[in-house]
């Protein structure tokens, strides 16, 4: 897997009030969330991206009030027709 380096200031560490390791994990999680919201990653792949179980990732999405089912109206209609 490739790595991405993102510079951040000490101020960001102070804002989150955590260690650099925890901040980096949180930023990785937030990137996974955004990629999931934009439908660039499935739920499972987004969870894997930030090294979480699907259940834990879904729980965190719920805490953020982000829907776990990420389908538009046409996709929902198609899923219902398939049954």
How does this model look, in words?
It is a single chain. This protein is mainly alpha-helical and 83 residues long. Helix 2 runs antiparallel to helix 3 and helix 3 crosses helix 4. The longest helix has 18 residues. The termini are far apart.
Based on the model shown, name its key terms.
83 residues, mainly alpha, elongated
Number of helices: 5
Percent strand equals: under 5%
> What is the number of strand segments?
0
Which ranges are low-confidence, i.e. pLDDT below 50, for 5 or more consecutive residues?
A: none
Distance between the termini: 37 Å
Shape, principal axes of CA atoms: elongated
The number of domains: 1
Q: Main beta sheet: strand number and arrangement?
A: none
SSE order, one letter for each helix or strand: HHHHH
Structural class: mainly alpha
Provide the helix percentage.
55-70%
Q: Round the mean pLDDT to the nearest integer and report it.
A: 89
**Gyration radius over CA:** 16 Å
Secondary structure elements and their pairing?
Layout: H1 10-16, H2 20-37, H3 43-49, H4 54-63, H5 73-82
Helix pairs in contact: 2-3, 3-4
């Amino acid at each position: 897997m490739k790595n991405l380096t993102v510079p951040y200031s000490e101020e960001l560490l102070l804002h989150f009030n955590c260690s650099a390791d925890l901040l980096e994990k949180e930023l990785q999680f937030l990137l996974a969330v955004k990629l999931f919201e934009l439908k660039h990653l499935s739920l499972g792949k987004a969870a894997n991206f930030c090294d979480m179980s699907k259940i834990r990732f879904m729980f965190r999405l719920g805490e953020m009030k982000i829907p776990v089912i990420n389908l538009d109206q046409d996709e929902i209609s198609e899923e219902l027709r398939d049954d």
